[in-house]
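call fold(seq) -> C-alpha cells
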Amino acid sequence: MTIRIGKKGISDQQQHLLERCRRDSTPHNLLDAFMTLINDREIRDGEEALHPSWFDVWEKRRARISQFGPDELVEQLTTFFNQARERDPEVTELDPQNQRICFLLGAGASKPEPSGIPTVKELLPDLLARARRLDREEVTRLAEFCESTGIDNIEDLLTAAQISEFCGRNPTIMRLIEFLLFREDHSDVGFRRSRRASVDVSSVAFLQDTLQVLFGLLSSRMLPAEPNEGHIAIANYARDRGDTRIVTTNYDCCMDLALSSLSVPYRYPLDFANSQHVPPSSDNPINLVKLHGSLNWFYCETCQEVHWIDIQKTVEDYNDDRALYPVIGVCRTCGGQRRGLLVPPLAMKFDVAPALNPLIEESASSFGDVDLIVVVGFSFADADLYISRMVSKAMQANPNTKMLIFDPMIGVVQKVREKFSVRIPDFDSSSRILSVCGDCSKTLPRFLSGAYRQSEMTGSNGDAAAEYASVETGA
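ret:
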C-alpha cells in the first residue's frame, strides 16, 4: 500500500466523503464514509492523493467511531491513518548526517517498550493503582478521592499538594487565597476563617508522607526501565557525531544507559560534591542535560550539596534485590537528609530545585547552536513554558534552525506551530516545524539512519516533496 498526502487532484467523491464526515457525526454515516475511503483502490495505490484534512477529521471522530464501530474496523482505520500520516514531506530533505542536532526528549520518549514508562497523563492512574497495594489508609483515601472526582493528571495533584503544604505553613497566605477566590462571599469566608484559622499540623504531615509514598512509587516504576530503540538510535548517532547535544526532562536513566551501552562518552554539566567518584570521560564528552533532575542525583537541602551515584550498579542491585533504592538518605557532610534531585510534575516548576538552575543556561546554549532541534515525546505544555521560551528564542535568533517533532499524536505539531507563530514575528511554522508521527522507537531510528532521505518520492510535476509525502508499507 502506497499513500500520497496532498491537495492536488482530489476527486469529487473523496471531497464529498470529507464533507460528509465534517457535517454529519452520526455513527452510521461515519462508518460508511470511512469504510469507503480506506477501501478506495486509487487512494491505497497512491494514484489519488489523500487530502491532509482527513487526519483532523479522524482525530475528531475517532472516539465516536471507536464507541459504535466494530473492533476490526477501528483497528483497520487506526492502521490506515498511522501509516498514511507518518511524516511531513519536507522531512526527506533533512540530512541528519550533515546537520548539528540537539535532541529534546520528553516523557513520550520513554513510553515505548522495553522502557514502558507512562506519560504524564497516564502516570497518576498507574501510581494510584500501585499505591492501593501498599494498604496505606491515607494513600487509599487519596486514590478513592481522585477516582471518584475524575482527577487523573498528576500535575494537578502534585501542584495542589505543593500549594496546600505552603499554605499550611503560612496561614495568612491561605486566608488571602480564600478571600481572593471567594471575595463575593467574604463575610461567610470570614466566619469560616474565625472557626479555623490554621491548618491542622497533621494535614501537613499527611501531605509530606503521601508525597514521599508517591515519589517512592515513581522511582520504582522508572528504575527497571531499559532503553528502547529510540534511545539506542540517539546513542548510535551521538557516537558517530561528537557534537551532538541532548536535553531531556526525563529523570529516568534510559538515555544514560543507552549511551553507556555503546561506550559513548558523556557528562552531566553539573557540579557534584563527590566528583572524585564520577568516572573520567574523554576530552570531548557529550553533554547530557537533565533539566528536571535524575534518579541517580541526590540533593541535601541543608548543605546544598549534589551527589552522584552509579546508575548502572544501582539498577543492577535494585533489580537483583541486593540493595534498596535510597529515596531518602543521610548526608555524610552535615547529617541532614538527602533526597532525589527530581523536579516533580508540577504546573509551577520554578524554584523547586535551585541546584538545577545551571542546567537552564546549558540548555539554552544547546538550543542556540544547532541546525535542527529534534523533539521526541515532548509536547511543550504550559507547565514547561520556560523550555518553550528557550527554544523559541533560539529559533528566532537563528532563522535557519528547524524543529522536527516525533510524536504519536498528529495534533501536537499543530499546537506547537500555533504557539511559536505567536511568539516569533513572521514565523513560517509549516516549513520550520516538521513532524513525524508514530512510535518514536520505530520512526526515530529510521530518520537518523537516513531511511527517509532514501525513500522514493514520486509526483507528476517532478517535485513531490513540495506537494505530498509517499508512505510505503507492507500492508
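Residues 189-197, 456-475 have pLDDT under 50 and may be disordered.
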